[in-house]
Amino acid sequence: MSEMATIARPYAKAAFEYAVENKAIEAWQQMLFFAAEVATNDQVKPLLSGLMSTDKLGELFANICGEQLDQNGQNFIKVLAENGRLKTLPAILTLFNGYKADYDKEADVDVTSAVKLTKQQKLDISASLEKRLSRKVKLNCNVDPELIAGFVVKAGDTVIDGSVRSKLNRLSDALQA
Question: Lesser CB count within 10 Å: N end or C end of the chain?
């Protein structure tokens, strides 16, 4: 996926910058989502690596997407087709969504706890993380009884592990050393 992301990055960045400049971030996000779904369709996927000329492939792909793409979206698809990059649409969408989250100063945070968190606990965790990350936080909460107690927070590269399981593991490692 890292190679695909490397290839997709300049396209995603260009699309995002264009969307910001034209105040059309939501519209571009929807167009890219639809185009990425088309690119991963089982009937369309073989065409992307087939022997069809890039002009015809771009035209066909734009026709499949139909009214879901505006004129600029269709032009973007044609550029991707000309450069043999239609397969990168899912990676372009992922990167675009990341640029949007950065632009909106938002962060998706995964919180795994030993028991279901109360509404107040979620609010406290959100407030603390918003202060620490300087972003609006969207919590994705999960329950894992194997943590015994406490919780684990993952926000991008940041991991905060306050679970009893990890404390017991560290204690066990210290005793064995």
Answer: C
